[in-house]
Amino acid sequence: MVKFREERSILGLGLNTGSFHDRYFILSTVSLRMYKEVRSNRPEREWQVKNLRVYLGIKKKLRPPTCWGLTVINGSEKQEKPERQQWYLCCDTQTEMREWFSTFLTIQYDGNVWPADAVQTRVTRALPADTRHAL
């Protein structure tokens, strides 16, 4: 069970509405599903994991119930009008937050979070022996 809050504005004035609510989430290799209750058969909402950007942390001004949370942004740019949804998932512990974040990354990068071609070998930065700086 995770605390959930959606970023909404009143009449585009930038005034936040709503608060954090308990929701049940299931994260699969394809989608993130949100259920109102554990016993629900049909998800209240569903998002494609590949379209989500996940960031560690939640704005303090939102007054989250705990400091352990994720900011999730869904940017569907394939439509005529790009839509941007933003919401917050608040976890009970730091370990739970890290597990959610690492699972998101693992799914989004097909388990290849640290690809071999991106890891550079350590390069020593030794100057050649004849290089001297004069004043």
From TrEMBL:
Organism per entry: Salvelinus namaycush
InterPro entries according to UniProt: Arf-Rho-GAP_ANK-PH_domain, PH-like_dom_sf, PH_domain
Cellular component GO terms held in the UniProt record: cytoplasm
Top-level division of the source organism's lineage: Eukaryota
Cited PANTHER family: ARF-GAP WITH RHO-GAP DOMAIN, ANK REPEAT AND PH DOMAIN-CONTAINING PROTEIN 1, RHO GTPASE ACTIVATING PROTEIN AT 15B, ISOFORM C
Residue ranges of domain PH in the record: 1-109
GO BP terms, alphabetized: regulation of cell shape
Gene that this sequence comes from: LOC120035869
Pfam families xref list: PH
GO molecular function per UniProt: GTPase activator activity; phosphatidylinositol-3,4,5-trisphosphate binding
Name of this chain's protein: Arf-GAP with Rho-GAP domain, ANK repeat and PH domain-containing protein 1 isoform X3
